[in-house]
Fold this protein.
Amino acid sequence: MSTVSHGHDPASLEPVVDLCDAVAVLGSFPALAGATMTVQRGEIVLLSGPNGAGKTTLLRLCAGLVALERGRGRVLGVDLANDRELVRHRVGMIGHSNGLYGDLTVTENVRFWGRTVGASESEIGLAVSRMGLDGRLAHLPVSRLSAGQRRRTALAGLVARRAELWLLDEPHAGLDAGGRDELDSVLKMAATAGATVIVASHELERAGKLATRQVEVIAGQVRKVAGL
Amino acid sequence: MSNASQQRFTGTTVIGTARLIAAKDLRVELRSRVLLNQVLPFALIVMVMFAFALDSDAVLERVAPGLVWLAAMFSTLIMVSRSFAVETADGALDQLRSAGVPAMGIFIGKMMALMAQLVVLVTLLILTAVVLYRAELSWAGSVLLVTTGLTATCGLAAVGTLYGGLAAGAKGRETLLPLLLLPVVAPVLIGATRATESAFGTRGVSTGQGWPWLGLLAVFAVLFSVSGAVAFGPLLDD
C-alpha cells in the first residue's frame, strides 16, 4: 500500500509522536494533565481507558486540533506548541463520523479528499482499489453503502491523502463482524506500508489483537504502557 | 522532509481549494437535485401565493421587485441550510478542518457554488415577475437588472455562507439561521428592490436612479466577502 514514502531523511528517524508532560485544556478543564507518550513509525498503538479519560483529546492534540497549553509535543517532527496547523495535512483523523458526502460516489469522495493535497488520478485509483472498493462499488453513491463499506471509503480517503499518522477514534463502532475484519486488515496493511496508527477503543479484545502496543489513559495522563 | 514532500504537505492553494469545494457542492446539487426539485418550486409557489394574496394587477406590478427579492431571500435560507447540512451530515466539515484544508478556500468555494445556484433562482424569479406580475423591462433596464442580480446574489451568498458556517455547529441551527441571517441581509433586500424598481421602471422611476442602490449592494458584497473569508477559519475552529 503506497500510504507514505519515507526515504532516508533524518525526520524519518524521529518518533512520530513525542509528548512530554503535555497539557491540553477544554474550556477550563484539563483534559490532558501531563501526558507523556512516544510512538515510533509503523506502530499500531491502542489507547484504552474509561470514558472522559482524555483519549479523544490525546488524538486531537496529535492531529493539531487542540492547543498544547504546557509541556512539550512533537508530531511528525512538527512542534505542536508553535506550528500545530502544519501537522494537519500529514495526519488523518476519523472519529465516529466518516466525513463522506452521501450523494457522491465512492470514487468521487476519495478523489475529493485526495485532491485536497493534490493527489493524482492514479494515486486516487490506487487508493480505491487497495481498499477493495473498485468495480461496481466505486460507482455507487456512498449513501447506498453499508457501514463497513463507508468506513473503508473514509480510509481510502486517508490513503489518497497519504496520511502518515492515522488517528482513529472507536473505529470498530457500528461495524458488523465482517466490517471489523476488513478494518483490521486495512490498518495492518497501512502499518506495513509505513503509516503509524493510533486507535482509541473500548473494544480491547478486538483492538488488542490488532495493536503492537497498548497505552492506558486515565485522568488525562498516560498511566500504563504495555507491549502486546 | 524533501522539497516534493514539503510542497505536497502544504496542500492545495486557497484558489485550488475554492475550485475543489465549489465543484463538489455543484456536483452534490446535480445528484440530489434539491435546487431543481425543491427550492425552485418553493420560490415559484411563494410568487404565486403573493399574487393570490394581493389579487390586483396594479398592486402586483408596483410591488413586483420587492416580491422577487423576498422570495429570493426565503429561498436563500433553504439553500444555505442545505449547503451546510451536506457538510455536517457525516462530519465532513470537521474533516476538512482537521485535514488542514484552508478555511478561506472553503468559504470562497461554498460561496461560489451558492452564488451560481442563486443566479439560476433569481433569473427564474425575474422571469416569473415579468410573466405573472406583468413587470416591464427595457434594454437599458436589463443592464441594470443583470448587474443588480449578480451583485445582490454575491452579497447573499457571502453573508449566507458566513452565517451558515456560524450556525452549522449550533443546536437548533434550522431556526437559528433565519434569526441570524434575515436582519443582516436587510440592506440587500432594500438595495436590490430599489435597483430592480428602476430597472422595471416601476412607479415612473428612471433607470439612472437605480445605480446608487447598486453601489450599496456592491459595498455589502465586498464587505461580507472579505470579512467572511477572513473570519471563516476562526469561526469554524470555535
